[in-house]
Specification:
By secondary structure, this protein is α/β, with parallel strands linked by helices. It has 18 helices and 23 strands. The protein is globular, with a radius of gyration of 23 Å.
């Protein structure tokens, strides 16, 4: 589409905005109603460990949102010569799960507790037993119930609790709702009802320590909406929160706020049954849209939903790329010390391409990328750890392959349960995330690790905010009754190109040897967390 046509669409408000608050970056993507990206903006941020709790400052969240919106609007001004004043539809997505409780005065009762925390073990175990449904530690209901068990003084005051996406959406338009995908990471949902499971709500309320509370769970949870529904309108207050410069008009239709898992499914066209996707970043997760229920409850597998409510088996791991990023930073400092400043993309490309010369099992090297605890390996506190034996072959290619294997190791352990015990099969498994920006390397290592073909679409690098903008287009501009899967096939991804890599026998065998060492040494990783205090 030429510049003048795009300019006309911007002026007419035939645009959609997606904002996603990821683990390391907040990003805004503006697109036309015909799925053409117009402008983007981003802001880097990072979680902090404070008083034993992983958290983000909500004031920084708003600073980041305003910064990336401002950069996006400035890009529109520069490229098209017009101010961005009208947006037809928008949506907010963010990291799933976590805990944001508010009182009747809409005051936050405790600092935001993120998905990264491993502080709800007792609650997760008791709820899984009581509900007959896997409740992971990071789920919002586990955080709430742990606060109940701990007799935290704020619990009786709770009037409402939500996720990060739900909080931002509420502030922008006044509606206390969630998209069904994000809601399914707070409390189990019923596919047929399209809302929280009524039987499980009743079981929760009847728990001994819960029934003494002055609230019922259904009254403090957000409402639930499927993709395509209106979730409110941007208020004047919300417009100023987004755009302090005062140019943006209120009235934008708001799509249901979603979690990053849901936008990842949209961004990889993986909402139809027998499709799946893998998203890697600070954390990593695989999403497998199910044809039928699993045979058993597995503590390493969540059951959540697509943005339109279909059940999904989710394998979530808390740690993925943080250790690689730390080592890349160290190598970058070394290069700078030699007088060779290197752009981050070039640095990662050089390091990743070393893997081409690596031995298939990473030369006997072992690495644990656990910056935080990891549920799948029962690791309570993370301590990134690199281990080699006297006969390991330590060189840069083997070191970098060990880093990539380590980033995917916990995900492989969880995926093995789905594939080997539940016989879950997908027609296509798509991947997205920064580790795949260097062509072939990360994609091939992941295919070898999981022992399945991995596909990467050309649009996958756009990520979650792009997926959220697509959901906003779906809610704001397409009223023809087309379901979400057909909309993605026909309106978004028709003619899209993709690359698929098959597992390599030598790489599969090598990764198996690495995983065997990895499993054997988990006791060392766990002991490090107990023995070495975090002095931060």
């Amino acid at each position: 589409m030429d510049l003048e046509k795009v300019k006309a669409k911007i002026q007419a408000g035939e645009t959609a905005l997606g904002i996603e608050l990821g683990s390391t970056r907040i990003k805004a993507v503006l697109m036309t109603d015909t799925i053409e990206t117009v402008a983007t903006g981003s802001f880097n941020w990072e979680n902090r460990l404070e008083n034993g709790v992983w958290t983000y400052d909500l004031a920084e969240a708003w600073q980041g949102i305003q910064s990336c919106y401002g950069a996006m609007a400035a890009s529109v001004q520069e490229k098209y010569g017009i101010r961005l004043e009208k947006i037809g539809a928008m949506g907010v997505s963010a990291m799933m799960h976590g805990y944001l409780p508010f009182n009747a005065k809409d005051e936050l009762l405790v600092p935001f507790r993120t998905w990264r925390n491993n502080i709800t073990g007792q609650a997760a175990d008791e709820l899984t037993e009581a509900l007959g449904f896997n409740i992971p530690q990071r789920w919002s209901i586990a955080h709430l119930y742990q606060a109940v068990l701990n007799k935290e003084p704020h619990v009786p005051e709770i009037s409402f609790f939500t996720t990060l996406a739900g909080y931002i959406h509420w502030q922008l338009c006044g509606e206390k709702v969630l998209g069904i995908g994000d809601a399914s990471g707070m409390f189990p949902v019923d596919e047929a009802a399209g809302s929280y499971d009524a039987g499980m709500l009743a079981k929760f309320d009847s728990l001994e320590k819960v029934e003494k509370q002055p609230w019922k769970l259904a009254d403090i949870l957000p409402g639930v909406l499927p993709a395509g529904r209106s979730a409110g309108r941007l208020t004047e207050k919300g417009a100023r929160l987004l755009d302090p410069a005062g140019n943006l008009q209120p009235g934008t239709l708001m799509a249901p706020p979603e979690g990053d898992a849901g936008t990842g499914m949209v961004g990889t066209n993986s909402v139809r049954k027998r499709t799946g996707n893998i998203s890697v970043g600070t954390s990593a997760f695989s999403m497998n849209v199910l044809e039928k229920p699993l045979k058993a409850v597995h503590r390493d597998i969540d059951i959540v939903t697509t943005p339109d409510g279909a059940p999904v088996a989710m394998v979530h791991v808390n740690n993925c790329s943080s250790d690689i990023n730390a080592w890349a930073g160290l190598f970058g400092e070394f290069a700078a010390a030699l007088g060779m400043e290197t752009a981050p993309d070039k640095l990662y490309s050089v390091l990743f391409n070393q893997v081409r010369q690596a031995e298939p099992d990473a030369g006997g090297l072992t690495n644990y990328s656990f910056l935080s605890g990891e549920n799948i390996t029962a690791t309570q506190e993370g301590r990134p750890l690199f281990v080699r034996t006297p006969h390991s072959r330590m060189n840069l290619p083997n070191f970098m392959l060990a880093q990539l294997y380590s980033a995917f190791a916990a995900l492989k352990i969880g995926m093995d349960v789905l594939i080997n015990e539940e016989n879950v099969r997908t027609d296509v498994m798509l991947a997205q995330g920064g580790l795949f920006k260097t062509p072939v390397i990360g994609q091939q290592v992941l295919a070898n690790a999981l022992e399945i073909p991995i596909t990467i679409m050309d649009s996958a690098g756009e990520g979650g905010p792009w997926g959220m903008a697509v959901l906003a287009v779906y809610a704001g501009f397409h009223k023809d009754g087309m379901d979400l899967a057909d909309f993605l096939d026909e309106k978004v991804f028709k003619g899209a190109s993709a690359t698929t890599l098959q597992p390599q026998p030598e790489g599969v065998a090598g990764c198996r040897r690495f995983i065997q060492r990895f499993r054997s040494g988990i006791a060392v990783e766990n002991a490090a967390g107990q023995a070495i205090a975090d002095e931060g």
